[in-house]
């Protein structure tokens, strides 16, 4: 008798595109890795869709864990409109997670995704077992509100050099950073079928303003975060200043902090060979 069980997919490039409707929103998502146990839900960055996760990091975690990535409301293949605050985005994430029938998750987050993840944990602390915060900062963090100017300037620079904006936003513009940036952008192209829809300009603008509001608002009480937490960044993050990673580390008791040298906002992508196994071990232990 042959088994009808589907083979386990551990390559993000081959993860099937799925959707689930919760209330008035249909959320697009992908899942991979062995099912069973607590899944790892990935919270993505500004302007990003399902296609913006580095497969080297996702695949390393999916070797042993059930991984779920998703499009926020109004982004990519998810329906609805982008919320005007990150608190509302956290509420949307909670709606998506509970629609899947999950009552306990681990979180892997990057940049804006880390901000949304913090809001989610503060509001629903019992939902999350472990937390990975990369390239991010706390609510009310100094100079987070300057992300708008930095982003538009780097987009302008990318246009005149015919490059991907992430090469400027995520990486230093030295020889090492340029090489790492181009390699990262190429990895994002490895999925060749069922690509996600890009974010609209309107949705992108709404997200930027939401981050600006987050940066200008009163700090959250991060002392409620008692989960094991891994914090990582590059030492020269121009989008979410690296000092804010140290701030998170001080405010989240028992957290671990990794700062990679000679790297920017995308330090975890530049140093994926070092970071991916560390993140996978942290989430597995």
TrEMBL record:
Classification via InterPro entries: AB_hydrolase, AB_hydrolase_1, AB_hydrolase_fold
Q: Which interval of the chain is the signal sequence?
A: none
Domain AB hydrolase-1, chain residue ranges per copy: 40-269
UniProt protein name: Non-heme bromoperoxidase BpoC
Q: Which UniProt keywords apply?
A: Oxidoreductase, Peroxidase
State its Enzyme Commission number(s): 1.11.1.18
Species source reads: Oerskovia enterophila
User: Single GO molecular-function term?
Assistant: bromide peroxidase activity
Q: Which superkingdom heads the taxonomic lineage of this protein's source?
A: Bacteria
């Amino acid at each position: 008798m042959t088994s009808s069980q589907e083979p386990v997919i551990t390559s993000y490039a081959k993860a099937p595109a799925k959707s689930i409707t919760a209330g008035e929103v249909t959320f697009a998502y992908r899942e991979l890795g062995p099912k069973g146990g607590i899944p790892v839900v990935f919270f993505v960055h500004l302007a990003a869709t399902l296609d913006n996760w580095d497969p080297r990091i996702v695949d390393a975690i999916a070797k042993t864990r059930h991984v779920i990535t998703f499009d926020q409301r109004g982004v990519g293949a998810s329906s609805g409109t982008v919320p005007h605050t990150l608190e509302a985005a956290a509420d949307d994430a909670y709606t998506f997670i509970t629609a899947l029938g999950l009552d306990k998750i681990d979180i892997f987050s990057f940049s804006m995704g880390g901000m949304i993840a913090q809001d989610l944990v503060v509001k629903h602390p019992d939902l999350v077992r472990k937390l990975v915060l990369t390239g991010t900062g706390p609510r009310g963090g100094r100079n987070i509100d300057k992300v708008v100017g930095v982003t538009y300037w780097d987009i302008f620079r990318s246009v005149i050099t015919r490059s991907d904006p992430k090469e400027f936003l995520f990486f230093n513009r030295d020889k090492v950073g340029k090489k790492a940036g181009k390699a990262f952008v190429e990895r994002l192209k490895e999925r060749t079928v069922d690509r996600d829809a890009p974010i609209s300009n309107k949705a992108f603008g709404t997200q930027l303003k939401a981050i600006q509001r987050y940066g200008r608002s009163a700090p959250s009480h991060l002392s409620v975060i008692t989960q094991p937490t891994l914090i990582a960044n590059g030492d020269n993050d121009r989008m979410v200043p690296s000092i804010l990673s140290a701030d998170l580390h001080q405010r989240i008791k028992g957290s671990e902090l990794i700062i990679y040298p000679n790297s920017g906002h995308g330090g975890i992508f530049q140093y994926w060979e070092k970071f991916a196994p560390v993140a996978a071990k942290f989430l597995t232990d």
